[in-house]
Amino acid sequence: MTVLETLLSGQLLFAALVTGSLYALIALGLNLVYGTMRLLNVAHGEVVMLGAYAAYWAFTAWDLSPLLVAPVVAAAGGLLGYALYRGIFKSLLADSSAAQVQRMESNSLLLFFGLSIVLQNAAALVFTPNNRAYNYLGTVYHLGSVSMTGNRLAALCVAGTCCLLVALFLGRSVFGLATRAVIERREAAFIVGVNVDRVQWLSFVLGFASAALAGVLVSMLGQFSPFSGFPYTIAGFIVIILGGLGNAMAGLLAALLLGVIETYGVALTSANMRSMLLYGAFVAALLLFPNGVFARRAAAR
Amino acid sequence: MKFSFSHRRAFVGGITAALLALTAGMASAQADKPLRIGFSMARTGMLANATPSQMNTYELWREQTNAKGGMDVGGVRRKVEFVVFDDQSKPEQAVRIYEKLITDDKVDLLLAPWGTPFHLAIAPVLEKFKFPMVGNTAASVALRQVKPGYIWFPTSAIPDRIGAELTAMLKTQNVKSVAVLSNVLPFTKEIKNFLEPELKKAGIEIKVSTEYPPDIADMTSTLTQIKQANVDAVLALAYPGDSVLYAKQAKELGLNQPFQFVAIGPSDAFFPKAVGAASAEGVVTIAHWSPRAEWKGSQAFYDAYVKKFGEDPDYLNSALAWMSLEILETTVAKTGLDKGKMRDMISSTTFDTINGKVKFEGVQNVITPTAFVQTQKGKLQLVWPASMASSKFEAKKGW
Q1: ipTM higher than 0.90?
Q2: Residue of chain B whose alpha carbon sits nearest to that of A127
Q3: Could B49 and A130 be called an inter-chain contact, meaning their C-beta atoms sit closer than 8 Å?
């Protein structure tokens, strides 16, 4: 395949879109929680993994379509987020002395890291560490020269739609305005009357719900085990660094960019270069665009 | 952060109580003198998803043995008890565990951990303590470098043999060109290194040769390249972790080669469930066992496994694990727990197993041939070599 053929291949574009839309959905939740609370949720990928298991069991044990249970799984994920926020983080966040706020960022890393280990091993204990996968919407559709498996098409549509909806919601609604206010100036938002607590718990709920939903979609594509959550956390972080913190729309573009870098990069070099490409984009973004590739406008404001 | 003293005390108290309960359990167990068999197993970490087929087999054996009244130890039946530790998928952890099992837990017998690197890592420990152990799920040319004496490898799925046998099988199917894609993990990489020179020697053109990392999540780029190369056969040297991804995307892209080889994964029961029966049909993979009448006990093992776990055993790893248990059982019934006698008997005897006769020369099983199986009508059938085939190779008709 020549370079030009590679770049013009619709098949690769489709693959890049599927990868990118999943990254977008995963990064969205991570971005919200980090943006509003400066909590680094390294257990985000584990929520994705739990979502995948929920869909798997619903499908194999009760023959339920993953797309139908997706809202339920997302709601359950949201509930988990709410419980965590009320149970652990609210009291920690309430102490807003400067020293405490600074410590919070690193403490949250440890806390979530612990949570991630607990979730991984609990899943290994309950679900056994077996590889899991199932066959759903396996029909292949052809559009011109591009072939698309039903489940990948569905994942693309659901992830894309959800991301756009959430981005619109954050961009247009009053809650979105409040969220962005909290992300940019927490104290100032509090002073002008933004209900910071509500913004925070809603961010937690949205963040966890979108991760669980992403899990449902991921489970339809390949296989997973209790230990397959972590790579998604990493991908989410790279997207956030590329897109800029707290900027949902930029996050979407950054996720697509990452999907493109990964898919076309692999096609032009070799699959072995995948990690190099991902982390290369990460390092390059940190060096060249410390505020995010698409975040200039936000930074200038 | 507040962490009150009373909390901490309750925590420590809880741990102490748990430890006491644990030691009390151990003390009472020792009173009945069961036979204690130790091993390490990757219950967590990156290999954990591969180990259940072996662990299940051990569990099944213990259950059956205890139902018979225990393991025959030189004429006396003793109930079997496992002493298992999680090696976290780290070979160096397995080394510590086996040392501890021998010196501290003072187990009576040892079973093998999962995977080649683990077998290689603990071999010096076995040598040091002169403690014989029959290996199972290990396959590498590096095994031949292990000093013979206290470890044996029943597998015939050694990469250099796989390279030669697979090439021979491709020749009989009149394959002129292939695409090879390989996971960079050790076993598949080793197969690739031995397979490609064999293919060249046999005049089979390798049109695409590519590698990918274990954490791959999308194969579109690689498979598009293979599709355009228009080859007669695709040799996917995949691990269980990516065999499903390969099958799903080969279907999407319409890789319709009649010869589809997927190295590891399709011998495990999860594969057809994961990709759908139609996709699994016709895939060729590595295994040298299938339940058949002339191998005594093979059908019984298959039935018992399916009954207990509700799915097929892994035709490679479960079968190997069971063979290693059979060899140990036969030996201990004769020699008792005398380590020197055990060693001598395992080194020199021809054993009857569910995979036919097994005899070791040095560390290697010299009887079982390297073989391949193919999924036909939902069942794995031995299709190579002809001498032990249970069915003929059938061209794969799409996914």
Answers
A1: no
A2: B49
A3: yes
